[in-house]
Amino acid sequence: MPCWTVHLEGGPRRVNHAAVAVGHRVFSFGGYCSGEDYETLRQIDVHVFNAGTEKWWTPAVSGHIPGARDGHSACVLDRTMYVFGGFEQLADCFSNDIHKLDTKLLSWTLVKAKGAPARWRDFHSATVIGSKMFVFGGRADRSGPFHSNNEIYCNRIRAFDLLTETWLDAPQCSAPPEGRRSHSAFAYQGELYVFGGYNARLNRHFQDLWRYTPETGHWQRVEVQGKGPCARRRQCCCIVGDKILLFGGTSPSPDQQDLQDEFYLMDHSDLYILDFSPSLKTLCKLAVLHYSLDQSCLPHDIRWELSAMTTNSTISRPLLSSHG
């Protein structure tokens, strides 16, 4: 598979930001530059990447600009970008407000949400299905918006109707996944999927995949064929047709599995594909691996593909990290 590096001038240098794609443009907001002056480098600018020209630009925006934050979520409906939650470091508190950006007019609006709002949180997920935004997971505090080191990890799903701008109690008729943060969430055929994440109170990284059906409120753990990713957080997922591409993430170093220590983490550079509609060829390859069948009689390209499916990445390295 070919790969390349694009050298981009004017792009944002940050972590824990949020971004959405609108047509051929990517809109990025928030985050901060790790290891440097937090106050001056906290980002409230909107950065836009044009995939056609492969260039970044920082447009002038108007309206009620959100306060600087990180660990927030962003999703998009009808060319409007919605930002929810996050941690406002200067105020030392979690947020549960919603801002929306008109990506055509480049104007921010503070949403005057109706209904009981979702809990203040960061490192959650927000996924649009139809005209509703489904919020799951994240880190919060039992005492309220301020961080008192009495963390909780939300596992009650909340829905926000983007058309009526109203918070709703999403149905939940079965046991949900464990609360977590820094997980991945995506929508496929009207259902919500959640993978991985981390819970500091349990000191546990997850590698489970769950499906939530909005109409019934039913959660179900999904059993997937093939060798999936190890337990991790901070990975990214995107959907291409009937396939989910998962890249990267952070997990405990194999040498420190028993300790699960925050200071013995490693970043991954591996790529996994979850195929919701596998071809006969893919199913046959999975059968060869599952039953340990003889591969010597197979064509060279098939043997190479089987090797690629079962060979771990060797690019990853241990990384000292404790945030996100």
Structure overview:
This protein has helices at 38-41, 280-290, 300-310, and strands at 18-22, 25-29, 46-50, 55-57, 62-63, 73-77, 80-84, 87-88, 93-94, 98-102, 107-110, 125-129, 132-136, 139-141, 151-153, 158-161, 166-168, 184-188, 191-195, 198-199, 204-205, 209-213, 218-221, 236-240, 243-247, 250-252, 265-267, 271-275, 317-319. Strands 5-11-10-7-6 form a 5-stranded mixed sheet, with no helix packed on it. By secondary structure, the protein is mainly beta. The chain has one domain: Neuraminidase (6 Propeller), CATH 2.120.10. Mean pLDDT is 89; it is low at 1-7. The chain contains 3 helices and 29 strands.
Structural class designation:
mainly beta
Q: Evaluate the radius of gyration.
A: 21 Å
Q: Helicity, in percent? A: under 10%
Low-confidence stretches: 1-7
How is the CATH topology named? Neuraminidase
Strand order of the largest sheet: 5-11-10-7-6
Specify the overall morphology.
globular
The total tally of domains equals: 1
Output mean pLDDT.
89
